[in-house]
């Protein structure tokens, strides 16, 4: 029995969603149908592709091997559809983009909205998670990171530098002692990351400073920003997020300033996938342009 494309699409959806119901939602199909297609593919290949449990579906070693081939087949089908449809430079299909939540909340919505406006047949899924994405498991088609990966079969492209500063709400500053030096910060409450949940060393903003105690902490940059907006204390904030929080004011910007970088990473197998390359180019241009605009307003 030769595998067919519908069965491979169902396999891909279950591999990504890890449950039949979630995969069925992605495919706009019935869960029982998705289950039958996966079973038919396993029969055709004479391989067990998933370990099934009450917690969901997990790829076996053989399923993991098939995944990369299925993704390449999917990209080939999407490229063929674009070419046969005569859509020229327009993008179509679905692209899933992973990003740290600061970037996902304050940069990607407007950048991706502009891209979808120019490509009406394109669906973009932004996955905001405070951790590093595993592209080998195809959790996303590409991901933005805050440090350059040192291992793995990955394509890595530096997108842009960005800056961070100390900030606090105007109400907080009005109610507490003035801050004219770094030493005076010791009298203030700090907002930051939960120390044992910092997933990347580039996010360890307070390491090596006298202000390592964090009285109000979260693993989310967006939660930290909202805590600052509510007068919870002093924190480190992205300059590109400040226009979204007009009641925040920078503190000691000439004394404390951090520079970090965003990197776009893709799986090496996607090097020749034209639609992903075109999307990456549009995304890179949009992020650079939006960073310049927002940091000028900060």
From TrEMBL:
<dbReference type="InterPro" id="IPR036390">
    <property type="entry name" value="WH_DNA-bd_sf"/>
</dbReference>
<dbReference type="GO" id="GO:0003700">
    <property type="term" value="F:DNA-binding transcription factor activity"/>
</dbReference>
<dbReference type="InterPro" id="IPR058163">
    <property type="entry name" value="LysR-type_TF_proteobact-type"/>
</dbReference>
<keyword id="KW-0238">DNA-binding</keyword>
<comment type="similarity">
    <text>Belongs to the LysR transcriptional regulatory family.</text>
</comment>
<keyword id="KW-0805">Transcription regulation</keyword>
<dbReference type="GO" id="GO:0043565">
    <property type="term" value="F:sequence-specific DNA binding"/>
</dbReference>
<dbReference type="GO" id="GO:0006351">
    <property type="term" value="P:DNA-templated transcription"/>
</dbReference>
<dbReference type="InterPro" id="IPR000847">
    <property type="entry name" value="LysR_HTH_N"/>
</dbReference>
<keyword id="KW-0804">Transcription</keyword>
<dbReference type="InterPro" id="IPR036388">
    <property type="entry name" value="WH-like_DNA-bd_sf"/>
</dbReference>
<dbReference type="Pfam" id="PF03466">
    <property type="entry name" value="LysR_substrate"/>
</dbReference>
<dbReference type="InterPro" id="IPR005119">
    <property type="entry name" value="LysR_subst-bd"/>
</dbReference>
<dbReference type="Pfam" id="PF00126">
    <property type="entry name" value="HTH_1"/>
</dbReference>
<protein>
    <submittedName>
        <fullName>Transcriptional regulator, LysR family</fullName>
    </submittedName>
</protein>
<feature type="domain" description="HTH lysR-type">
    <location>
        <begin position="3"/>
        <end position="60"/>
    </location>
</feature>
């Amino acid at each position: 029995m030769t595998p067919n494309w519908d069965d491979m699409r169902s396999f891909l959806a279950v591999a990504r969603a890890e449950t039949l119901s979630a995969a069925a939602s992605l495919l706009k199909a019935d869960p029982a149908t998705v289950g039958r297609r996966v079973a038919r593919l396993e029969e055709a290949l004479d391989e067990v592709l998933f370990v099934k449990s009450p917690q969901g579906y997990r790829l076996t070693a053989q399923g993991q091997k098939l995944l990369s081939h299925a993704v390449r087949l999917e990209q080939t089908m999407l490229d063929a559809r674009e070419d046969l449809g005569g859509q020229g430079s327009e993008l179509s299909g679905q692209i899933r983009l992973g990003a740290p939540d600061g970037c996902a909340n304050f940069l990607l919505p407007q950048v991706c909205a502009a891209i979808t406006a120019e490509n009406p047949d394109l669906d973009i899924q932004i996955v905001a998670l405070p951790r590093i994405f595993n592209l080998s498991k195809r959790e996303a088609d590409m991901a933005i990171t805050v440090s350059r990966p040192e291992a793995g079969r990955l394509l890595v492209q530096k997108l842009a530098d960005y800056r961070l500063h100390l900030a606090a709400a105007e109400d907080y500053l009005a109610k507490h002692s003035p801050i004219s030096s770094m030493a005076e910060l010791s009298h203030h409450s700090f907002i930051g990351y939960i120390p044992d949940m910092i997933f990347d060393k580039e996010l360890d903003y307070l390491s090596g400073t006298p202000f390592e105690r964090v009285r109000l902490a979260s693993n989310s940059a967006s939660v930290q920003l909202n805590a600052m907006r509510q007068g919870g204390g002093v924190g480190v904030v992205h300059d590109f997020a400040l226009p979204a929080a007009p009641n925040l004011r920078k503190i000691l910007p000439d004394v404390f300033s951090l520079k970090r970088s965003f990197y776009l990473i893709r799986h090496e197998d996607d090097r020749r996938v034209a639609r992903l390359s075109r999307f990456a180019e549009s995304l890179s241009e949009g992020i650079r342009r939006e960073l310049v605009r927002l940091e000028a307003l900060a």
